[in-house]
Design goal:
Helix content: 25-40%
Structural class: alpha/beta
Shape: globular
CATH class: Alpha Beta
Distance between the termini: 72 Å
CATH topology: Rossmann fold
Number of domains: 1
Strand order of the largest sheet: 1-2-7-6-5-3-8-9-10
Number of helices: 10
Radius of gyration: 21 Å
Oligomer: single chain
Length: about 280
């Protein structure tokens, strides 16, 4: 991938990093695309990949509210929930997306990043075409702070990527982060740095609640977003209507909330003379 480099002495260097990290800022940020997306109102997403069905459902409910706000979404987009939110970030014309890779940008490309998020059967989602359109038109941003020739996603690189995603954000959404997970470790750092963060109000997130990460649902998250500066998106700017995205046949989607299905059982009628 063709990339550029920005350093702390450059006026284009993200100011949130300088303000929050001071002399601990990365010496180099490698990027491809629109670096100015980081100047937009930004929400980072980090979530453990150990989440279950209840967490998926509770997260999906909060997403119904989140998608109505104009944001730049930033993250590594790796776990199941992160991938679903990543697709949501392509849902409206006035939302933007920043991809933060734990690999080097000599090795990572938009296509290689995409293959990990839209593998079959996810390849039939309409957001896949929108992703490629934005990539081809330089409407996305990909970041890395890793040696450009690094091909592996090392744990230390993943932790650094997740932490810097949060530092670059105005708010952080943590749908799930149990104790002993990388997400929980980052959540504690977020609290110490006083970066606004939230989770769902699910009991599944009680460990996050105990360290001061508040939990919200579809109705209550609105106040938190607006107190922290989020603005509602302009109506009518959807790329796809919610019906088009969320009501596709089950074979073409991986939805958090699936309609219940009951198998129809048919039995042969017994003749009057047959034995039970």
């Amino acid at each position: 991938m063709e990339y550029k480099i920005v350093t702390p002495d450059d006026s284009k260097y993200p100011q949130k990093l300088i303000k929050r990290l001071d002399n601990k800022c990365p010496d180099k940020i490698y990027y491809s695309g629109q670096l100015e997306l980081l100047d937009h109102y930004t929400m980072a997403v980090i979530c453990s990949d150990k989440s279950g069905g209840i967490t998926l459902i509770d997260t999906n409910q909060v997403l119904f509210t989140l998608r109505e706000y104009e944001m730049n979404y930033i993250g590594g987009w790796y776990s199941v929930i992160e991938t679903e939110i990543f697709r949501l970030s392509l849902f409206k014309k006035n939302t933007t997306t920043t991809l933060f890779s734990a690999k080097g940008l000599n090795k990572e490309t938009y296509e290689s990043f995409l293959k990990d998020r839209f593998y079959p059967p996810l390849h039939e989602f309409p957001e896949r075409d929108e992703y490629f359109r934005r990539a081809n038109n330089s409407e996305l941003l990909m970041l890395s702070v890793i040696n450009p020739d690094e091909t592996r996603q090392l744990r230390k690189n993943i932790m650094e990527r997740n932490w810097l995603s949060c530092v670059l954000a105005d708010i952080v959404f943590i749908p799930y982060g149990p104790k002993s997970s990388k997400t929980y470790t980052i959540a504690k750092r977020i609290r110490e740095a006083d970066i606004p963060a939230f989770s769902t109000d699910s009991d599944e997130c009680k460990e996050l609640h105990k360290i001061g990460i508040p939990g919200f649902n579809r109705k209550t998250v609105k106040d938190f977003l607006e107190v922290n500066g989020a603005k509602l998106a302009v109506p009518g700017e959807n790329i796809n209507s919610s019906e088009e995205v969320y009501n596709k046949p089950i074979s073409q989607q991986l939805s958090f909330i699936k309609e219940t299905h009951q198998t129809e059982l048919k039995f042969k009628k017994k003749s009057k003379n047959s034995n039970l």
